[in-house]
Specification:
Alpha-Beta Plaits; alpha+beta
């Protein structure tokens, strides 16, 4: 069994990109060093939208990672820097990586919006962008 976690964040301005990139790199390194992490993948889609796909052995690994720094610090910046933020997670029987298409479908079906201070119209309406 594995737990898959997908996140899509959209920066509201290019001016936030340097800080976002700095925290992203540090958080990826943190995730990879967290016991129970089976890997992390990232991608950029149109505009300033960025995705992470992480695989975890169990919920304890996620509970260890999420509140620890630098991820915790990055999450404190998210409401200021992003105008769209959504995440989803699910269990699967294998430790095979899901495709980005599967992750996108899961995000659309079960994604949870993260409150942001300057939401896009789509985010404000509760719609989840998957591109």
């Amino acid at each position: 069994m594995a737990i898959i976690s997908v996140t899509r964040l959209r920066l509201r301005s290019l001016r936030f990109f340097p800080g976002f990139l700095w925290y992203t790199r540090r958080s990826i390194r943190q995730a990879k060093r967290t016991p129970g992490n089976l890997g992390v993948r990232v991608r950029k889609t149109k505009g300033l939208a960025f995705w992470t796909l992480a695989m975890w052995r169990d919920n304890q690994a996620i509970r260890t990672f999420v509140p620890a720094s630098p991820h915790r610090e990055a999450m404190q910046k998210l409401p200021h820097w992003c105008d769209e933020a959504v995440f989803a997670d699910w269990e699967q029987d294998t430790a095979d990586w899901p495709s980005w298409e599967t992750a996108s479908e899961r995000l659309a079906a079960t994604g949870r919006l993260v409150p942001v201070l300057h939401p896009s119209e789509q985010h404000r309406a509760g719609k989840i962008e998957t591109s």
